[in-house]
């Protein structure tokens, strides 16, 4: 029987998805991306989940798109099959937060997938890179667009043109990752962060994610207007009443996610 390509489990209100082609360093092929998309959408629909973690193995988050699958592809193949568009961007439909917990290699499509998550927690052995140039292509799942937004044009150009890797420390200095932890603490750190988020009111979590993402898509004035409308809208939730009441009564809020 074939191993599951994406392992899925729950810890409290946290959904955990693990890429599972360890022998190929989680090289991302079509079947794996289909499985990942389906698992993400299932967690998006599940009311008992408030935050999602996407992780890989101890050696690799993902070492990129599957080169053996791509090598024989023609222009006609990739165009007809909408290669990348078809199943790589499902993650962008997810409105709940997705945390990338990265140990080992996050290269090419693996780095791009991590950057499609809402933030990255890195193990101290993590390595990030866009090495596509070394095999005669360029990043194709957002690397040339998201990397400069995350780490500046100069560093992004350096990474994309030389194909070199950056280690976790450089990635944190550059702003690509939000925190670094010892490799054996990665799972717990990600779970702790996700549990905190999943304990917040889901409507406000969704609004917060949407507003921060808007910063990358619009002008400052429009972005601030968007934020203001979302902020006002949250006063229609039960959780706003409960959150503020709980603060005044010096107790923990009992959010109902409505
Ligand atoms: N694709 C297919 N197989 C891979 C990949 C990959 N990206 N990466 C590793 N593997 C396989 C190896 O072939 C090897 O298989 P086998 O045991 O059968 O020979 C196994 O995984 C273990 O790998 P290594 O023996 O190479 O392990 P090392 O520890 O020596 O090296 C490295 C680790 C440095 C990570 C090395 O494997 C490597 O350089 N991998 C390729 C990295 C790369 O170039 N990634 C970019 C790919 S292109 C891309 O991602 C384009 C994205 C576009 C968007 C997505 C479109 C779908």
Automatic annotation (TrEMBL):
Database matches in Gene3D superfamilies: 2-enoyl-CoA Hydratase, Chain A, domain 1 (3.90.226.10), Lyase 2-enoyl-coa Hydratase, Chain A, domain 2 (1.10.12.10)
Q: Name one GO molecular function term.
A: enoyl-CoA hydratase activity
Going by the entry's taxonomy, the superkingdom of the source organism is recorded as Bacteria
According to the UniProt entry, where is the signal peptide?
none
Give the enzyme's EC designation. Answer: 4.2.1.17
By sequence similarity, the record places it as follows: Belongs to the enoyl-CoA hydratase/isomerase family.
- The protein here is known as Enoyl-CoA hydratase
**Organism of provenance:** Noviherbaspirillum album
